[in-house]
Write a structure and sequence with these properties.
258 residues; alpha+beta; Toxin ADP-ribosyltransferase, Chain A, domain 1; 5-stranded mixed beta sheet; 3-stranded antiparallel beta sheet; 43% helix; 22% strand; NAD(P)(+)--arginine ADP-ribosyltransferase; nucleotidyltransferase activity; glycosyltransferase; NAD+-protein-arginine ADP-ribosyltransferase activity; disulfide bond
Length: 258
């Protein structure tokens, strides 16, 4: 019986390796044209006024958002000594994003909500979180002074492909780390090395400070400056060239139909 068990174990191990290989998705980097990329330029106060009503409706229709928000409210006082320069709502939004409850669903929605204004108004149920995170990153960049960061982003299960010289966006809020080792703990199928000038250091407001997180907004544009493979895994270097948005203050423009 032992040899047959050993053979079975060996077969299962090979099968697991085959499944793991098949499971890696190949995704081309691009300008993420369907991303909801609003920067809310010139409408911060008006959006803040609209938030109260927005938050209530989004809590009711989105359990992940409600759960993440409540958990962040509970945890924030134990992790953060000073909210400054963020408002309480902005600090809660950053904490909620950095926890496990909603960032996957949220970023998946951000990547597709920009297909049309109607798609954003009717089917994107993270309007408040998107606005608060965008404003929080802006406030932190102002407080931290104009600076760029060299950061890393590790991805598991996806091998991104890119062309040298190509202009690309992540099209979502992209978590990166100042530590390559920490970034690679999240995956090595693709490892990005990124020079970001619009991301902000959020570690003082994040659930796990050890990650040394810099959060990059969906609208930052990068040039692909290096692409290579390492042990069958993708390595992509990006350098910031500025920002680009298809939307600005979209909720206020289309509020009457929302």
């Amino acid at each position: 019986p032992l040899p047959s068990m050993a053979l079975l174990a060996h077969t299962l191990a090979l099968l697991a390796m085959a499944v793991a290989t098949v499971a890696i998705e190949v995704v081309p980097l691009d300008m993420a044209p369907d991303s909801f990329d609003d920067q809310y330029q010139g409408c911060g106060p008006a959006m803040t006024k609209a938030l109260k009503k927005l938050n209530q409706t989004e809590f009711q229709g989105n359990r992940d958002f409600a759960t993440g928000w409540v958990k962040a409210v509970e945890v924030l006082p134990t992790r953060v000594s000073s909210l400054d320069p963020l408002s309480p709502a902005q600090a809660i939004a950053v904490m909620a994003y950095s926890m496990k409850y909603l960032y996957i669903q949220f970023n998946s929605a951000v990547r597709t909500a920009g297909r049309s204004g109607q798609e954003y108004r009717e089917n994107f149920h993270f309007k408040a979180l998107h606005f608060l995170l965008t404003q929080a990153l802006r406030a932190l960049r102002v407080a931290q002074g104009p600076q760029c960061h060299d950061v890393f982003r590790g991805v598991k299960g996806v091998r991104f492909v890119a062309q040298l010289g190509q202009k690309v966006r992540f099209g979502q809020f992209a978590s990166t780390s100042l530590s390559r080792a920490m970034a690679e703990k999240r995956g090595t199928d693709t490892v990005f090395q990124v020079h970001t000038c619009h991301g902000a250091d959020i570690r003082d407001y994040a659930y796990d400070r050890r990650y040394r997180e810099v959060l990059i907004p969906p609208f930052e544009v990068f040039k692909v400056i290096k692409v290579f493979e390492e042990g069958g895994e993708a390595r992509i270097h990006l350098s910031s060239t500025g920002t680009f948005s298809n939307y600005n203050c979209e909720w206020l423009r289309g509020n009457s139909t929302g």
